[in-house]
Design goal:
Number of helices: 18
Structural class: alpha+beta
Bound molecules: calcium ion
Helix content: 40-55%
Distance between the termini: 40 Å
Strand order of the largest sheet: 6-8-9-5-7
Largest sheet: 5 strands, antiparallel
Number of domains: 2
Number of strands: 9
């Protein structure tokens, strides 16, 4: 069960990001758009529906709910196309952050925090999650409730369940959605969201709704869909608390690294006490002392020529919302900006473009052929590929920052 990201972020970022992490369960192989031949039909959807009704009844959905929610289903080829093509979109972290944490996202966020000051104070007191962090997720997921999605959730999940690619996952979400309707929290017409089934102010999937949604305004319904954000924001705080949010600790912060720093240590796999990092010459970019937030890792999301961050356990909690490093950094940095913090100081290697899906696969293939096992060719730049890049860089006298750039690929060619 996880919560999904919507808006313009249906894209795979160049570094550390998979389309799966922005969308559904990890481990799915994502076919290329060209592999897609049979895209389905209305008749096919209706035939699928006959079998689905029996499975839904067996799972505890009533015939009345099914009759009410599943009439007028319309096959939507556009959704299948979106689902197929996600992995084709790529963005570098700096392009992503330019949009995700622009002034257009910071200014309305500061206003929203003021407008809902009382609500945020109560949520912070109840769940122990800083209001700026909850607001940052709200800002990224729906631009503070402005873009909650207008796709009918039942129709979207039915189409995606009928489609064979990730049928089991979506059918589970569809049954969860039908049970929400059966529970009386929302009408089928009001249950709207993204094309992939994420709903409301902070884009909960139906399964996450059952696990984590709360009725914060006390009207007896867990309403994450309506104009009032109270239930959705409290549900998000509840989600973060469940996964171990530690109030008063930073998610991370921008740091400077000393000359001669051992870049082999710049990975989430290396965790050290803050004092050890300080002894190695790691300093806050903003000056002063490093905050003591327990074990920390150094992250270079744009390689050695980009910004460096020291990240703490709260970083892993935000990952529960979305595993993409870029997403987590965007949430964390936006929360800092909403608190009045400064922009990221370091530059980025903006002349480098993102690798395409084919290039990411080629990189993995070539690394493995060269004796640096990327542990699979899936076009996803995860910890194994980063480790292989690092090993290749070390063996070739380069800074081992693990950044899967075009430069690395060209050198491997
Ligand atoms: Ca409520």
């Amino acid at each position: 069960m996880r919560v999904f990201l919507v808006l313009a972020m249906i894209l795979a970022l160049a570094q550390n990001v998979s389309a799966q992490s922005l969308n559904t369960s990890e481990g799915d192989a994502l076919p290329q758009g060209d592999d897609w031949v049979d895209q389905g039909s209305q008749a096919g959807l209706e035939a699928w529906l006959t079998g689905f009704r029996d499975r839904a009844l067996a799972a505890g959905v009533t015939a009345q709910t099914l009759d009410q929610a599943l009439r007028d289903l319309r096959f939507d080829a556009d959704l299948i196309k979106k689902d197929r093509n996600q992995s084709e979109f790529t963005k570098t972290i700096w392009d992503y952050l330019d949009t995700a944490v622009s002034d257009d996202r910071v200014v309305p966020g500061v206003k929203a925090l003021k407008r809902h000051a009382d609500l945020f104070a109560r949520i912070e007191a109840e769940y122990g999650v800083e209001r700026e962090v909850v607001a940052a997720i709200w800002g990224l997921e729906s631009a503070y409730g402005t873009f909650r999605g207008k796709v009918a959730t039942i129709n979207a999940l039915s189409t995606l369940s009928y489609d064979a690619r990730r049928a089991a996952f979506f059918e589970g979400q569809l049954i969860a959605a039908l049970k929400i309707i059966q529970n009386g929290d929302v009408t089928p017409a009001a249950m709207q969201g993204s094309w992939a089934g994420a709903m409301g102010h902070t884009q909960f999937m139906p399964g996450s709704w059952w696990e984590f949604a709360v009725d914060f305004d006390g009207d007896g319904k867990r309403n994450i869909w309506g104009d009032d954000p109270a239930d959705a924001l409290a549900s998000t705080a509840n989600y973060l608390r469940h996964w171990g949010w530690t109030k008063g600790q930073p998610w991370g912060l921008e740091i400077s690294l000393p000359t001669g720093f051992d870049y082999d240590q710049t990975t989430e796999r290396v965790r050290k006490p803050v004092a050890d990092w300080a002894a190695l010459g790691v300093r806050p970019m903003a000056g002063g002392e490093l905050p003591d937030g327990g074990l920390a890792s150094v992250l270079l999301p744009g390689g050695a020529r980009g910004a460096a961050f020291l990240i703490f356990s709260n970083f892993q909690v935000i990952e529960r919302y979305n595993t993409a490093d870029a997403y987590v950094i965007a949430v964390g940095h936006l929360s800092d900006r909403l608190r009045g913090g400064p922009p990221i100081k370091a530059g980025w290697p903006r002349e480098l473009r993102a690798l395409t899906q084919d290039e990411r696969k080629e990189l993995q293939t070539r690394l493995t052929q060269a004796g640096f096992d990327a542990k699979g060719v899936d076009g996803r730049i995860g910890p194994n590929t980063i480790a292989a890049v690092k090993a290749w860089q070390k063996a070739n006298g380069r800074i081992p920052d693990g950044y899967a750039s075009l430069e690395v690929l060209e050198a491997l060619r």
